[in-house]
Amino acid sequence: MNPYIYLRALKRAEHTVFCVEDGQKTYFDAQFNRLLAYASGQQVKRSVLEALTDYLNVQMAPVTFNYEITAKNELSQKEPWSPCDPQHIDQLVGGWMRAGDGITKKRRSPLSISAMRPLHPLLSGVEKENLTFDRSDRPDNHPVNVRLAGKSELLSEEEIEAFLTKSHSTLTRRHWIPDNKRTTGLFVYDIAVDMRTLFSVSLNQHDPEVDKEMIEKLRNAGWVESENVFGKCLILPKAEREKVIPALAHALINWRITSNQARTFSLMETLAVAISDNANALAGAIRAKLIDDGTEKPKAKPIVDEKAGAEVFVTLPCAAHVIVENESADALDAAVESLIKKMRAFDYEKQL
Asked: Structure pTM?
C-alpha cells in the first residue's frame, strides 16, 4: 500500500489573532495585492503535538536550554538540547535535532505540515482596529506614577497637581493601543504522514538519529528490530502503537491553536476534511474558484468536492459558508476513524 497519508482540512477563523507578530502575523500576496494572515507550519505542528500528548495524558519531552557567560560577563543563549528519546511520543512523532553535544543527532519528523493559510486570497481578510486599556471607572483603585524624564524618583502629589495646573493637563487611566490586526476567513492546512518512519528509529550510526546507548535502551524496552527502505531500524512495539494511533488521528483532526501565540478566542471550527493517498486529490477536494460576474473586482467561491478522488468529511457548520449536500454531525469522528484504519493497516514491522 501507499506509505503516505495526505490530509487537508478547511477551517474558519472569525475576528481573531492566531499567530502574533506585530499583531496577527501576515504575508503579502502579489497576485491579488492583499495582506493575508497565517500560522506557521511549526505552530500547527506544536499544536498537533500538544493535542497528542494531552490525549495520552503524558508530558512533552523536557528540553534543556543552554546559556554561556561570555568574556564580557554577559549571558549568551546557545542551542537548546532535545533529549533525542523516541520513548517520548512527541519526540517520536515530532522529530529532533541536537548539536554541540558530541555527534549531531537528528530525526526528521514523519509528519510534514504546511502553514495554515487562506483557502484563497479573496476568502480572508486582515483588519486593523484601535483598542483602549481603560481603567477610568475606578480611579482610586489604580495609582498613577509620574517621573521627570531621566529620573527615577516619583513626583509627589503636590508636585503633580502643580504641574497639571500650570500645563492645563489631565492624567487619565486609559492606554491607547493603535493598529491591532485581526483576521477573518476560510483557512486550510495540509499534513503528510510518512508511515515508513512514523514508528521507526534508524539504526544508522553514520548519520545517527540516536546514539548506541539509546539503541540498547530501546531494545530492552521491547522495540523490534526490522528494516525499511532507509535501512535497519527499530520499531515501536505493537501494543504501544495501538495506544498512539487513535491519539495521533485525534490530534491531526482536532488540534487547536492554544499556545501563547494565539489570542482573541475563536472556535476556528473545522468545516471539512479531505483524506487520500494522493496529494493531488486533496487540492481538488477542497479548493476555491475565481468567478467572473462582470464587475471589476474578482470574486472567489469556496468549493468542497466529494467527487474529486479523496474521502471528504463535511461538518454541519460548513453549510453556512460552502454549498454542500452531505454535511453531518459526526463528520470529524468519521475522519478520525478513517485515519485510524489507514494507520493500522500499514505493516510497520515487515515493510520489505
From this structure: 0.88
- Grid look-up 461538518 returns 315
Q: What angle do CA 227, 201, 103 make, to 5 degrees?
A: 120
List Cα–Cα distances, 59 to 76, 255, 263, 307, 345, in angstroms: 28, 16, 24, 41, 28
Residue 29's beta-bridge partner residues?
A: 34
DSSP, collapsed to helix, strand or coil, labels residue 68 as strand
55 three-state secondary structure: helix
Those residues with Cβ within 8 angstroms of residue 241's Cβ, 6 or more apart along the chain or in another chain? 199, 348
pLDDT tens string 93-118: 999 999 888 889 999 999 999 999 99
CA 310/CA 245 separation, integer angstroms: 21
In angstroms, rounded to a whole number, what is the distance separating the alpha carbons of residues 13 and 263?
12
Task: Report the alpha-carbon angle 207-213-219, nearest 5.
Answer: 100
Integer Cα distance of 48 and 91 in angstroms:
12
Q: Between the CA atoms of 25, 28, 32 and 36, what dihedral angle is there, to the nearest 10 degrees?
A: -10
* Residues 79/85/86/90 CA torsion (nearest 10 deg): -50
Dist CA 266 CA 260 (whole Å): 14
Enumerate the H helices of the chain as residue ranges: 41-56, 89-94, 157-167, 195-198, 212-220, 238-254, 279-285, 331-345
